Amino acid sequence: MTFMRWRYLAFPLLAILVAACGRGPAAPAAPASYSDAMDQAAKAWALNRWSEVFAACELAFRYADREGDSKVIGAVDCVGESAARMGKPELGIPHYQRIVEVHGESLRTHSGGQRVANNLGVLLIAAMLGDRQLREM
Fold first, then answer.
1. Contact 95, 119 (CB under 8 A)
2. For the segment 33-69, what is each residue's pLDDT rounded down to a tens digit?
3. What is the pTM of this model?
4. Rounded to an integer, what distance in angstroms lies between the CA atom of residue 101 and that of residue 41?
5. Coil, helix or strand for 29?
6. Exposed (0-12), middle (13-18) or buried (19+): which is 124, by Cβ within 10 Å?
7. Which of 29, 88, 116, 132 is the most buried (most CB within 10 A)?
8. How many CB atoms lie within 10 A of CB 109?
């Protein structure tokens, strides 16, 4: 009789054990602020993990854009550079377009305004020509 009870419990216990073993560690929480996102981008940058850098910079861009802060210029530089290093410069172009459309006054008064225009031009050329042709120029 005792064997019969254990037999009915063995399968559910085995299923729970197998399911628990397949779980990995919990995913890290997304950065809660512009500063946290840029810190995460800096750590990924040091490891040359460009897709992680792009994701963190894009999040920082969204935070700064939502606040209407001039930090958006630093974030867009980060987005553009990481997109170019991933070999996908076209991913950075919409962010620069957003800067020009919405934060035009910040471009005029910020010390990095001309750099932003230059970086947008580089991304446009890279997207048009391709990375290999850009290096040969």
1. no
2. 999 999 999 999 999 999 999 999 999 999 998 988 7
3. 0.68
4. 25
5. coil
6. middle
7. 116
8. 8
